Amino acid sequence: MTVVAPFGLSVRDEALEADVQAGLAAVEEGLLEATKSDVPFITGAAQHLVRAGGKRFRPLLVMLAAQFGDPHAPGVVPSAVVVELTHMATLYHDDVMDEADMRRGVPSANTRWDNSVAVLTGDFLFSRASNILADLGPEAVRIQAQAFERLVTGQILETAGPQAGRDPIDHYLEVLSGKTGSLIAVAGRFGALLSGASDSVIDVLTQYGERIGMAFQLADDVLDIASDSHESGKTPGTDLREGIPTLPVLHLRAAAARDGLPADLELCALLDGDLTDDARHAEALARLREHPALDQARRDTIRYAEEARSMLSALPQSAARAALEGLCEAVVQRTG
Question: What gap in Å lies between CA 249 and CA 172, rounded to an integer?
């Protein structure tokens, strides 16, 4: 048995699969409904990424976490819609900041329209998420607000860069904890909270979400270098070409600063050059694929996934727990 998203996660329980599939289908309906506007242009822009698809990682985590309470409780699906809307809103904004051309295999909103439309559409999605959230109660609103603060703080830290004397890798992991880990932690928390799970279970699934979120993002970092496919929804080497620092590159730079090997220094110089040139970009990508820095990034991904799995030991054995453990394996397998 399998759950289609994400990554063909294996689920060996028919009842669980049926529940999760039904929940994800309801989330899709909720996303389309939440992105409708009386203004057709706004509907088209707001549904641009909804219809492009995506892994729906966060709604899946909500559905699995809800299995530790009542998965059919009325707040479960709306909370998954809130988390995914928030995530998509950040993508509209990220693409403007990164000047991205593609997202989820389609032209980004800023490319199809312009930066102003992309920013305002992201704001529209935030507003719709907030409207749904208001019906879930003050605790849910507070949880989302705190996560949103962390998310924005992570983005600001990324924009500002590490302070003098700060380890760039530590800084980067702090950025990811805010930008990615915070919202995926909310997915685990909402699923447990709104299904009526116990406080101890809510805490476990929140911490699990934070760690699996970090592993999820670091796997994308590895894929940007290692993959020949479009698994991440972007052309491989996109972050590299755009000069966005990712963990393999940061490990390379750390090794070059520490050991001063000529080959590492030369590769760093290549990365600092013009990677819009296809030949230079291909060379940099090929050399990074052979560098130990890529394996170090894989080990970091595995470490976070193993930490996430270890959190689950406090939960009772069940099909849902097995699926969450399988999610850790699936994230790691993406890195090759």
Answer: 11
Q: What is the pLDDT at residue 96?
A: 64
Q: Write down the H helix ranges in 57-101.
A: 57-65, 76-98
| Selection from 92, 111, 114 nearest residue 102 by Cα | 111
Model pLDDT, residue 54: 80
Angle between helices 14-34 and 76-98 (to 10 degrees): 60
In this prediction, residues 111-138 reach a mean pLDDT of: 87
85: left (phi over 0), alpha (psi -120 to 50) or beta: alpha
Predicted structure pTM score: 0.90
Are 284 and 275 in contact by the 8 Å Cβ rule? The answer is: yes
Do 319 and 13 form a contact (C-beta atoms < 8 A)?
Answer: yes
What single letter denotes the amino acid at residue 127? S
Question: In this structure, what token pair is assigned to residue 159?
Answer: 């924009």
For residues 188 and 206, the answer to whether their CB atoms sit within 8 Å is: yes
Whether the Cβ atoms of residue 237 and residue 281 lie closer than 8 Å to each other: yes
Tokens of 252: 């390379």
